[in-house]
């Protein structure tokens, strides 16, 4: 009998099982692969065995960070990538790297640095789920860590001022969203009708942007102009998490420009390099991944009805 596995993570709101991108990524992968996780919400990451969330505990094994948790699940034969080719496995790693480079800084800024969002939504939400006196300290610490990470990755020459950094990270994020939309097209998931690791990571990044009600929503507004990405998030929430979807995905999709083409070339180049180095994603026998056979796309590709740390 397999050892029980428990996942500790931040809780959810706004129709999401968790507001924490890393936690969402692991939870989605577990759903896709059929891994029997018991999910426990936590109100103090310092109480986690490694001082961070999400954290997976199985008997005397303690694992944090999404990439390591997913690798552990694969070793337990819960592999959502079982049917992927070596090329698709390389594409997965390339797109995850793109998400962390291009989309993560804007996600962190939206939640933790944008003053109006932080003061009216992020800080009150997290503080209300922490015990006193941590509620007075931890949100500010998480905000400072997010800003430091953004400046570390985007604050060097030729960009120096915070205003320039903000403008650049949102340009990069919108280009990344455009690329993801183009790559997904009218498909149910990024590699056909079966969700994989890439779908888990994309969902973990996009769902909080899509669902959380912020006063400053420039990234959310751009995402909602890409109906296939909105439908992608809604389908996962309704079919894998059994959550009721409110609202709908608006029509209209941005046309890919020269920057989008460059991003595509970058991903293809990185994918080719990774493919030469890594061909071990599907070597061992695995539990078959969970397929979705009931979802149908409406005409025009719209919906028919809605390893770095991803947060401080």
TrEMBL record:
Record's keyword annotation contains Transit peptide: no
Location of the Mitochondrial outer membrane transport complex Sam37/metaxin N-terminal domain: 23-142
GO cellular component: SAM complex
Broad class of the protein's primary localization: mitochondrion
UniProt xrefs under SUPFAM superfamilies: GST C-terminal domain-like (SSF47616)
GO aspect biological process, one term: mitochondrion organization
Subcellular location: Mitochondrion outer membrane
Region of interest called Disordered, as start-end residue ranges on this chain: 279-312
Record keywords: Membrane, Mitochondrion, Mitochondrion outer membrane, Protein transport, Transport
InterPro entries in the record: Glutathione-S-Trfase_C_sf, Glutathione_S-Trfase, Metaxin1/3, Metaxin_GST, Mito_Protein_Transport_Metaxin, Sam37/metaxin_N
Domain Metaxin glutathione S-transferase span(s) in chain numbering: 173-236
PANTHER family tied to this protein: METAXIN RELATED, METAXIN-3
Family: Belongs to the metaxin family.
Protein name (record): MTX3 protein
Organism field: Halcyon senegalensis
Phylogenetic placement of the source organism: Eukaryota, Metazoa, Chordata, Craniata, Vertebrata
């Amino acid at each position: 009998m397999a050892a029980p596995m428990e996942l500790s993570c931040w809780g959810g709101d706004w129709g999401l099982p968790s507001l924490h991108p890393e936690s969402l990524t692991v939870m989605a992968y577990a759903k896709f692969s059929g891994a029997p996780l018991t999910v426990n919400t936590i109100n103090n990451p310092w109480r986690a065995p490694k001082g961070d969330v999400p954290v997976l505990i199985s008997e005397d094994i303690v694992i944090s960070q999404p990439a390591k948790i997913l690798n552990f699940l694969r070793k337990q034969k819960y592999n959502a990538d079982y049917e992927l080719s070596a090329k698709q496995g390389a594409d997965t790693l390339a797109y995850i790297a793109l998400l962390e480079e291009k989309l993560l800084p804007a996600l962190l800024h939206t939640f933790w640095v944008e003053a109006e969002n932080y003061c009216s939504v992020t800080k009150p939400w997290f503080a209300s789920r922490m015990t006193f006196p941590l509620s007075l300290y931890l949100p500010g610490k998480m905000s400072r860590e997010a800003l430091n990470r953004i400046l570390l990755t985007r604050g060097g020459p030729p960009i120096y001022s915070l205003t320039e950094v903000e403008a650049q990270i949102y340009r990069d994020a919108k280009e990344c969203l455009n690329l993801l939309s183009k790559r997904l097209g009218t498909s149910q998931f990024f590699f056909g009708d079966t969700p994989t690791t890439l779908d888990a990571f994309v969902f973990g990044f996009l769902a909080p942007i899509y669902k959380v009600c912020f006063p400053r929503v420039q990234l959310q507004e751009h995402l909602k102009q890409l109906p296939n990405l909105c439908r992608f998030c809604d389908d996962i929430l309704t079919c894998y998490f059994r959550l009721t979807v409110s609202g709908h995905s608006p029509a209209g999709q941005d046309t890919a420009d020269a920057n989008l083409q460059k991003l595509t070339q970058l991903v293809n180049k990185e994918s080719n390099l990774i493919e030469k180095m890594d061909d071990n994603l599907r070597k061992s026998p695995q539990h078959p991944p969970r397929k979705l056979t009931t979802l149908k796309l409406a005409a025009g590709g719209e919906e028919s009805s809605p390893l770095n740390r991803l947060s401080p």
